[in-house]
């Protein structure tokens, strides 16, 4: 019988053993760092009770318990699959399980997003951005954070990206863009009324539009010159947070930045080294 099963069923356990089993179940990873004395103190049991307990569940002793309990936990973590992107963890999950689920969620989102984007579409996007007189990025809600990150990276290689700061300012920014400019629209659903309004303004001004969305058939995507898709995993309903969508949008923007950087590698590398040197000179010696 597996240790976990024995701890959960508690067949033939006395009161002290039940208390010990419950403590281990509630502190799955933590007990692996405990000596037998530490576990004894935390569970108000004797070390001899712990040894008898280990033998009762088919183990040689406490050392054998720690080795096999660690292996069971690792096997359980490795078996975590099909993480719900809207609610990736529950109140019953341990910290280690949450780490594993978030890692799997990010990995799946990144792999899917990578697989649905072609070299051709990325080359086209980079070409449009490099030819543009001005670049703007338009985001709403949670997508504003990846937009801000992209703006920051581009600024450091002397390619300013305009991003509105005040609410409602994005409409004025869009109205000032023209046919020689390029706008990136971030909209996971592609159905945001606010972003659709902005995209319409840009379309009427004949601005080149790149849409990053999980829905290539959406209202916003229909107005785009180019759509860079991201993995579609989150629902439109209530969710704990935008884990999967945000990492996918970040991936697209980081890829664009990387490709733009490589297009003028020596020039951009020089700029970054110069910037970092200035920062180093601005720091106190440790």
Please provide a written account of the structure:
The protein has 286 residues and is α/β, with parallel strands linked by helices. It is built from 12 helices and 5 strands. A 5-stranded parallel sheet has the order 2-1-3-4-5, sandwiched between helices. Helix 10 links the parallel strand 3 and strand 4. The chain is elongated, with a radius of gyration of 27 Å. The termini are far apart. The model is unreliable at 237-241 (pLDDT under 50).
Helical proportion, percent range:
40-55%
Instruction: Output mean pLDDT.
Output: 87
CATH topology of the largest domain: Rossmann fold
SS content category: alpha/beta
Secondary structure tally, helices: 12
Which regions have little confidence, pLDDT < 50, spanning 5+ residues?
237-241
Q: For the record, what is the CATH homologous superfamily label of the largest domain?
A: Glucose-6-phosphate isomerase like protein, domain 1
SSE diagram, text form:
Elements lengths: L2 H7 L5 H12 L9 H8 L3 H10 L5 H17 L16 H21 L3 H13 L3 E4 L5 H12 L5 E2 L6 H7 L6 E5 L6 H12 L3 E6 L12 E4 L13 H21 L1 H17 L5
Parallel strand pairs: 1-2, 1-3, 3-4, 4-5
GO molecular function, one term: DNA binding
Organism: Marinilactibacillus psychrotolerans 42ea
Protein name: Sialic acid utilization regulator, RpiR family
Summarize the structure.
This protein is α/β, with parallel strands linked by helices and 286 residues long.
Please tag this protein with its features:
286 residues; alpha/beta; Arc Repressor Mutant, subunit A; Rossmann fold; 12 helices; 5 strands; 55% helix; elongated
């Amino acid at each position: 019988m597996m240790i976990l099963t024995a701890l959960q069923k508690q067949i033939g356990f006395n009161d002290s053993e039940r208390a010990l089993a419950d403590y281990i179940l509630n502190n799955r990873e933590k007990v692996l760092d405990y000596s037998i004395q530490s576990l004894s103190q935390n569970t108000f049991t004797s070390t001899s009770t712990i040894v008898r307990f280990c033998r009762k569940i088919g183990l040689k002793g406490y050392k054998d318990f720690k080795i096999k309990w660690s292996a069971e936990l690792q096997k359980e973590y490795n078996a975590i699959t099909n993480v719900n992107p809207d609610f990736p963890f529950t109140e019953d999950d341990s910290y280690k399980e949450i780490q594993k689920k978030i890692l799997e969620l990010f990995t799946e989102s990144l792999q899917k997003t990578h697989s649905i984007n072609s070299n051709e579409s990325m080359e086209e996007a980079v070409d449009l951005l490099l030819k543009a007189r001005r670049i703007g990025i338009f985001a709403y809600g949670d997508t504003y954070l990846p937009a801000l990150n992209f703006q920051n990276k581009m600024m450091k290689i002397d390619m300013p990206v305009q991003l509105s700061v005040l609410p409602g300012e994005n409409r004025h920014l869009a109205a000032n863009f023209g046919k020689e400019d390029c706008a990136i629209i971030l909209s996971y659903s592609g159905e945001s009324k606010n972003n659709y309004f902005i995209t319409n303004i840009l379309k009427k001004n004949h601005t080149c539009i790149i849409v990053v969305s999980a829905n290539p058939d959406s209202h916003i995507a229909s107005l785009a010159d180019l759509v860079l898709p991201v993995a579609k995993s989150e629902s439109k309903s209530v969710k704990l947070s935008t884990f999967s969508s945000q990492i996918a949008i970040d991936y697209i923007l980081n890829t664009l930045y990387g490709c733009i950087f490589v297009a003028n590698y020596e020039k951009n590398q020089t700029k970054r080294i110069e910037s970092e040197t200035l920062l180093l000179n601005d720091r106190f010696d440790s």
